[in-house]
Each structure stands twice: as C-alpha cells, then as structure tokens.
Amino acid sequence: MKKYIDSGAKDTRSGFGAGLTELGKKNPDVVALCADLTGSLKMDEFKANHPERFFQVGIAEANMMGLAAGMTIGGKIPFTGTFANFSTGRVYDQIRQSIAYSHKNVKICASHAGLTLGEDGATHQILEDIGLMKMLPGMTVINTCDFNQTKAATIAIADHHGPVYLRFGRPKVANFTAEDQVFEIGKAVLLQEGTDVTIVATGHLVWEALQAAEQLNDLGISAEVINIHTIKPLDEEAILASVSKTACVVTAEEHNYYGGLGESVARTLTKNNPAPQEFVATMDTFGESGTPAQLMEKYGLNAASIVEASKKVIARK
Amino acid sequence: MPNQDQLQDLVVQVRRDILRQVHKVNSGHPGGSLGCTEFFVALFQEVMDRKSGFDMDGKEEDIFFLSNGHISPVFYSVLARSGYFPVEELNTFRLINSRLQGHPTTHEGLPGIRVASGSLGQGLSVAIGAAQTKKLNGDDHLVFTLCGDGELQEGQNWEAIMYGAAHKADNLILTVDYNGQQIDGSTDDVLPLGNLRAKFEAFGWEVMEIEDGNDLQAVISGLEAAKTKTGNGKPVCVLMHTVMGNGVDFMMHTHAWHGKAPNDEQLAIGLAQNPETLGDY
C-alpha cells in the first residue's frame, strides 16, 4: 500500500533556493533580500545570477522588512530570507505595520522553523511563528512539507499579490511529492484516503503522518491523510469533508499547541461539525539543544506519536 | 506654480486646518504638525516633481514617506489642499469610518499615502527600499522622507542609515524635524541625540542644515540645495531646525502640545493668530 515513495532526502530550504533561482530567470520583478544568511537560505544562486536584484542587508532584520515593504512601491516583488525566529518574532511590528497593515506584496521566507535548528537551541528555534503570522489580517501562511513542494510554493507565491509567510526547515527530509506539482495556495492535498481517522499534518510532520498511516493500517485502522500546506487561508472544506467521513481528527505540526494548525482546525470543527481532536504539537514549551531527530522524538513530533494520538481519538468517538 | 504670497497663505491656512482637526475630536498632535507646516507646503507645492493624480507605485515622479506618522494633521491638510482628496474630508479626522485615521494608513485607500506609519522608526527603511526600486526601474526621480528627531532613538533607523550609505542610496533625501522635543520633554532630557550631524557624517551621509525650518523660503531653498547633492553616491540628510507648535504663541517652544488638543478658548486664540486665507473647509 506504500503510495508515497521517498525519492531521496533533501532539505526544504534547498527547495526554496531552487524555486527562487527559477523565479529569478522568469520574473524580472523578483528581488531578494537576506540578513547575513545567504548560504543558510540557499540564496547563493539567485545572488550569483542576479547581483543587481540581490540585497545583502546585514544583521538588521527590522530594516530588511522595511526595505522590502518599500521595494514593492514601484512594482518589485521582494523575497526576504532569514531564520524563522528572526523573520517573525524579532520583527513583528515591522511586519505588522509596514507590510501587513500597508498591504505590501512582500514574501517573508523563513528557514529553520520549528525545532530542527537542533543543536543551536531555543534562541534559534521558533515554535510560535505560525500563530504570530496567522493572526495578522491579510497574511497568507504556508508551511511546506518537502523539497518539491517548497520549490513549487516559492514559485507560486510570486503570482499571488499580497503578503505571504513561507515557512520551511533545515534538515534533509523525505522528498515524496511530485516534481511537476501545481501549488495552489489554500488548497489542501489529500494524500491518502481512509475511513477511521483523519490525520491533518503540515510541514515536516506530513511525511511522519504517512508513516503513521502505514503503521495504523497494519493495526487494521484506516487513516485519511491530508497535507495542509496553507494554514491561512485554511481549506476548511477539505477538512470538514474528511471528518464527516471519519468523525475524528489528529493534527500534527512542528509548532506550539497554542496558535498553530491544530487550533485552526479545532475552530473549524467547533463552528461546523464538532468532532474529537488530538494534537501532535509541542506543549507550550521552548525547544532545547539536540539533534533534530532527538528533538522530534523528545517532543513527540513523529509517526509514533501520531499513531498513539489516532488510537486515542478513535476511542473518543 | 503658486507665487510667494499664495504659498504663505497656504501655510497659514494649513495651520488653521491643523488646529481645527485636532480640536474637533479633542485628540491628535498639533505641536509637531505646526512645526512642519512650512516643510510640507514647500515639499508638495514647490520641491517635489509630482504627477497629477495618485497611484501607489509613484513611477516617474518624486515620492514622499512620512515616518513620524503622528503629525498626520499637517500631512492630511497639505495632501487635501494639493488636490489628493477633498478638503472637506478633513472634517472626518479620527472619526469612525474615516479614511483619515489617527496615524496615516494605506488601509482605507487615502490618496497620497504609500505606507502606514506611526510606530516610530520604520519610515526610513521603507523610503530606502522605494529608492532602490526607483533605481532598478531606471526612474531618476527622488524619494523624500521625514522623521522626527526623537524618533532617531529607535534603533531601526541606525540599521537603515548604515545600509543607505553602504548601498549608495543617493536618490534619497531624509529630512529630520530637529525641534529638540518629544512627549516626555526635551530630547536632551529624555535621551540625548548627541551630535546628529557628526553621526550622520560618520555613517557616510551627505549632511546639510536648514537653520530656520519655519521660514518658508529658507525651507524651499534648503530642499532645493539638497536636491543638488543627490546623485553623488551618498544619501542626503537635511537637519531642519524647527520650533514645535510654530505659529501659535502658547504652543511654541514646549513639548506640552505634542499630543494635546486645544479647548474652545485656546482654539479661538490660535485661529485669531492665523486669520483665514484660502477658506476653511
């Protein structure tokens, strides 16, 4: 039944770099700004190909957000690049006022989201960014699951007019979505059909959800797996259609329990079709140092946790 | 182009607009607005090369960003009296459902405004970004921006000042409203700015001063001189010495009127000191 094959581990941030490189060639209005993390964000190739459209701003993220807002005036499409922590919490007021409130066409591209910056510890990780960004009126929030999807999303957001938060990670993860996929903002992807439980996952947890579905299948439990790459606007229709069939849901994300995807799904269910829900997320904690794999295990962000949550939620039906 | 008498009439009328807007809703910021009246009149009527009408991108024209958004009364008055929107709309300042929010915003689509401002320290970054886009577009027009002196206490400005010089944003003119006052008192009392001229020069900017920023002719000639300094590899900073509350005697030389509205009696005194010229709205 293995439907999705890992075509070779790749990092999502390299998907961003590949998408940006392609965009640079096809869209002359795309400009890129980086706060001293060109290599980490994989922006080197864009910089090499289009030095006149690449702006090194130094370790000055607040200025970077303001510059990006200003560059939209006259028609440019700025992509900013730094770690997720410094792309959101550090510059929240700049994003709120100069970008979101001002309706500026800025693409805030954030790498090393969640726990997977690993050994650097909590100062360089962030588990609150989805919540921060989704609360901003008019902000689109995207969290991609693998290299191919990140590349497709990077290209797609250039054609969407308005502020976008694009969240991706550092480590190499399974690359399992189609290379030629069409990325539709706000449109969930049904990865696997099932009848007993709906697993709604985002980012690095999508692959874990697929692994969990296989393990559940071995236990005789049929799981439906949905990839929510766009957290805002949320594809409520897809979630409700699935839950009307399965009558319960597990949400899975590399983010705090407060303010993340799970909370958005819970709101949707409460309003339309209340159903039992279990949350695979970090439980109101900061991260810590460790390898990404160790951290994902310690904080319960893996297939095993999704399996346990699924059993629990089915029992609550 | 208006003659000097007409411009001076506009200055007086804008002062009346400021007082009346703030008085009507018993809120807003008259002090800094009055201190920058000559600057706004000079900029919009004489200095900037503007297209007729308004579009967000402002290509092939000079554009302006207000960073210290709390002086919205003077900005709104001069925009309206320069044809961006009906002067009567000044009646809606700070009222519910108005396009004239307490601090300027693009949100309600008010012509003349290209970015929201009010949370201090952000305008210079936006202005530099817009200046860089003008260069990418091959548009040789200029970007002007105004910030308050107290606003320079915000660290983001110094990120932007460093960046502007490093990236040779020489199509940009930053004017600092150098009145030495902020909400809690003088800038010297709250957090001294030190030698601003030396600081900007040390950061690689071309610096000029306008000694009397409330003398219309001095402001016009100062800004025209600043224009001649552009295109030489350095961004240009104009330190414009102004008097907060200028034109209304009891509001001058004090921070007391930074964010306080006059009562009926005070309004009458202020208006009497600035008799109607072009007509009230």
Brief sketch in words of this structure:
Chain A is of the alpha/beta class and 317 residues long. In chain A, 38% of the residues lie in helices and 20% in strands.
Comma- or semicolon-separated keywords:
heterodimer; A: 317 residues; alpha/beta; Rossmann fold; five-stranded mixed beta sheet; 20% strand; B: 281 residues; five-stranded parallel beta sheet; two-stranded antiparallel sheet; 10 helices; 38% helix; 11% strand
Strand runs of chain A, count: 14
**What does the main sheet of chain A amount to?**
7 strands, mixed
Output the structural class of chain A.
alpha/beta
Query: Major sheet of chain B, described briefly?
Result: 5 strands, parallel
Strand numbers in spatial order across the main sheet of chain A: 3-2-4-5-7-6-12
- CATH third-level topology of chain B: Rossmann fold
Strand content of chain B: 5-15%
> What gyration radius of chain B follows from the Cα positions, in whole Å?
17 Å
Uncertain segments of chain B of ≥5 residues (pLDDT<50)? none
Strand segment count of chain B:
7
H/E series of chain A: EHEHEHEHHEHEHEEEEHEEHEHEHH
Q: How much of the sequence of chain A is in beta strands?
A: 15-25%
Please give the oligomerization state of what you see. Answer: heterodimer
Architecture of the largest domain in chain A, CATH level 2? 3-Layer(aba) Sandwich
Unreliable stretches covering 5 or more consecutive residues of chain A: none
> How helix-rich are the residues of chain A, as a percent range?
25-40%
Q: Name the CATH class of the largest domain in chain A.
A: Alpha Beta
End-to-end distance of chain B, in Å? 22 Å
